[in-house]
User: What shape does this take?
Amino acid sequence: MDTFVFKAFLLSMLISGFLFSSHVCASEDYESKKYGPKTPIIMDTPINVIFEHRVHTEEVGLECAACHDDIFVMQRGVTPKTGQTMKALAKGNSCGACHDGETAFAANTRCNSCHFKPKDLKSSDPHPHGSTH
Assistant: This one.
């Protein structure tokens, strides 16, 4: 019985080590200079919205210049807190420049891709709905 417990312990340590090392390697592979900040941007004004650079750059393949500096200034914390409305997006402002139904899904569809119900979500938390773009 002691041999069984010892082998089970060694096996669990081996598996834990593998999982930990693969997680560390995966997080080291992300290049923030190439793909933008890894941490999602969470805006709560005028309504709760989450934006992930990674979805747009790493997954979709956009370059940073697709949005910066023509649509958004490339500086942390300077995105306007006002004017970010669905009406403005429908006019092609902000995210609506691409989310027009032709370039990317229309801003007035797939609400859960960007909007979420707050549950003490912090900017370090993962996307509340998983990757949805």
About this structure: Strands lie at 41-43, 49-51. Residues 18-25, 128-133 have pLDDT under 50 and may be disordered. The first strand starts at residue 41 and ends at 43.
